[in-house]
Design a protein that fits this description.
The chain is mostly helical. Helices cover 81% and strands 0% of the residues. It has one domain. It is built from eight helices and no strands. Helix 5 packs across helix 8. 46% of the residues are buried.
C-alpha cells in the first residue's frame, strides 16, 4: 500500500510542483477578462491559443477554468464550450498516451507487484467513474490520466469517460464566462454532477461484462 501511495504522490508531484512555483503569478495574469483580452490580440487564432493553454495545463500551472471562461467571452458558449471541451480531451489523451507508452512495467517497479495490482484493481472497478469525475478538480485530472495510462485502462473506456467529464466542464465554464456569471458554486456543481450522470448513462453501452468501472 505504501508503494502504491508513493506512485500516486510521484505522479501528482509532476503537476503540483509547477503550481507551487508559478501558479499564483500565472493565475493573476490570466484572470477571466485578462485572458479574454489577451487572446483577442491573436485575432482569428485566439481559439487555438486558448486550446493550447488548456492542453499545457498538463505540465504548467495554467488556470484552465479561467481560459475556458475566457473562450466563452470571446466566442460565446457554443464555440467557446466546444474548444474548451476539446482542449480538456486533448490534454487527457496526451497524459494517458505518454503513460501508456511508458507502460505498466514502470509503474510496477515503483509500486511493487502488490501495489500495482491494487491500482489495477481500482481502475478495473472504478476507473471510468474516476476519470469522468476528476476533470473539474485541480491537479487530479492529470494524476488520474497518468494512472489510467500506467494501468493500461482500455482506450475506448477511457476516452468515453474522459468525454463525459470534459464536455460538461468545457460548456459550463464557457457559458459562465459568456454570461458573466459570478455563481462559481453553480458552475462547479454542474461540472461535478453532469459527468457522473453522463457516465452512468454511457457505461451500459460499453460492453463492460457486468463490471463496475
Amino acid at each position: 500500500m505504501w508503494r502504491l501511495l508513493l506512485l500516486v504522490l510521484v505522479i501528482a508531484a509532476l503537476s503540483i510542483v509547477p503550481f507551487l512555483l508559478w501558479g499564483d503569478q500565472v493565475e493573476a495574469d490570466l484572470s477571466n477578462k485578462g485572458a479574454a483580452e489577451w487572446m483577442r490580440g491573436f485575432g482569428n487564432s485566439a481559439w487555438f491559443v486558448g486550446l493550447g493553454l488548456i492542453v499545457l495545463d498538463i505540465v504548467l500551472p495554467v488556470p484552465a477554468s479561467a481560459i475556458m471562461a475566457a473562450l466563452g467571452i470571446v466566442y460565446g458558449p457554443l464555440i467557446g464550450g466546444a474548444v474548451s471541451a476539446l482542449g480538456s480531451i486533448v490534454a487527457g489523451l496526451i497524459g494517458y498516451g505518454i503513460c501508456r507508452l511508458i507502460g505498466p512495467r514502470a509503474a510496477q517497479r515503483l509500486a511493487g507487484k502488490e501495489g500495482f495490482a491494487q491500482a489495477l484493481h481500482l481502475f478495473e472497478r472504478y476507473g471510468g467513474w474516476m476519470v469522468a469525475a476528476s476533470r473539474w478538480l485541480p491537479v487530479l485530472p492529470e494524476t488520474i490520466s497518468f494512472l489510467a495510462g500506467l494501468t493500461a485502462m482500455p482506450f475506448g473506456r477511457y476516452i468515453a469517460a474522459l468525454a463525459c467529464g470534459a464536455v460538461p466542464l468545457g460548456f459550463a465554464f464557457a457559458t459562465a464566462g459568456y454570461l458573466g456569471s459570478d455563481n462559481a458554486l453553480l458552475t462547479m456543481g454542474l461540472s461535478a454532477a453532469a459527468p457522473l450522470l453522463l457516465w452512468f448513462i454511457v457505461r451500459p453501452f460499453l460492453n463492460l461484462d457486468g463490471r463496475r468501472y
